[in-house]
Amino acid sequence: MLTSPSSTDLRPTLSHLWVFAILNMLFRDVHEFTMASTINEILSGTLNGNPMSEQVLLAGAFAVELLLLAFLLTALFPPRWSRLLNLVMVPVAVAGIFVVPPADPDDYFFATVVLITLATIFVLAWRWNPLTTASAKFGASHAA
How many domains would you assign to the chain? Predict the structure, then answer.
């Protein structure tokens, strides 16, 4: 499926890649909670040296919701809009990764996995020609 993006409906593949990226981001956060130093830092009102506030938590919730919408809308939108959504949301997600840069080796590991996944989403969306997908679908229904 990854070899011929112009002739295939990539919405399911892109949706699955979004889920993979989101789960890696969330698991990285959960992974950090296993360290006593992270819990103590949160209890002090900071995280990675940044003050935590209701506004920061709201911004984080908004960012996660955007990623979840990218996953959902990729599957629900028509192919043309799905492609456009992915081309717009990948740079937004990449920028979000660097709002709080990685601080330790496991953060770099998860960030690398997510960046590779987001790059894959972007490349597939860039190469995808939804018009070919639509015409192939209609042409196949009229084939003898």
Answer: 1
3 has a pLDDT exceeding 60? no
In-domain check, residue 144: no
Query: Residue 98, Cβ neighbours under 10 Å: how many?
Result: 10
SS3 103: coil
Backbone torsion region of residue 48, taken as left when φ is above 0, otherwise alpha when ψ lies between -120 and 50, otherwise beta? left
84 belongs to a structural domain: yes
Task: Let me know: does 133 contact 22? Beta carbons within 8 Å.
Answer: no
Q: Which domain holds residue 20?
A: 9-128
pTM over 0.85: no
The band of 117, judged by pLDDT with boundaries at 50, 70 and 90, is very high
How many helices (H) and strands (E) the chain has is answered by 6, 2
- 140 domain residue, yes or no: no
* Average pLDDT across the chain, whole number: 84
4 domain residue, yes or no: no
Rounded to whole angstroms, how far apart are CA atoms 94 and 43?
28
